[in-house]
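Morning. Coffee machine broken again, so started the prediction first thing and wrote up yesterday's gels while waiting. Chain of 275 residues, entered below exactly as on the submission form.
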Amino acid sequence: MSEFEAASKGAKMDFSKDMSYGDYLGLDPILNAQHPLSDAHDEMLFIIQHQTSELWMRLAIHELEAARQAMQGGELPAAFKMLSRVARIFEQLNNAWDVLRTMTPSEYTAFRPSLGNSSGFQSHQYRLVEFLLGNRNESLMKLHKHKAASFARLEAELAQPSLYQVAIARLCDRFDHQPLAGAPGRSDWKAQQAVQDLWQRVYEDPGAHWDLYELAEKLVDLEDYFRRWRFNHVTTVERIIGFKRGTGGTAGVSYLRKMLEVELFPELWNVRGAL
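Came back before lunch.
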């Protein structure tokens, strides 16, 4: 008996009547969902890079929605686990840019016309991640009107408090502070001193407020990885297309650099300078 035969002895080999690995994962539609529109070798890389990113974002949405629900129910430890997972999802997404950066400008130019006006800027899942976290630019909703299901999902998210809004509600409850006027996470939300002051009380006495202290650090960790993902996006785009306009009509690198200035949890960053 060969070494392989010995190691695999007892393994099921016939799946004509049972569920296999590929069946469980639905691999056939996934592995047949790549349809390059040109003969360029590198178009397959571009498609798979973005398809896998969308799968990771689907998981991030699943975790963020569950984390918000756990926070609303007062189950902070469960939320911590999910927020840590989302941070690692963005670490995974960060690493994926390294693969895309192996593509040169010449290689991208060979299939860029095939993209037409399509762009990652139009990703409804990325927009949903931002809405969940609290960056809610409602003017961008029009990008998704042609897809009824996507538009409805985003509308439903806007009707709920963002993850950060729920975190602030827990913070206010702890210190018997009046709920804040306005809605954190709306496009006109600015950092509020009252919120920063409450976070400062947490940071000045972590032992007395360990759950909120840990919540704050989980949020900062998540935004840290999210910012790195944005930065690597800018760098990758500049490396491949320079300062040309994006396929979706945006200013390309200039637009992406502007997005680097957006802070999801501004009070948590500002409080560091006040301690």
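The longest helix spans residues 210-241. Going to sketch it on the whiteboard this afternoon.
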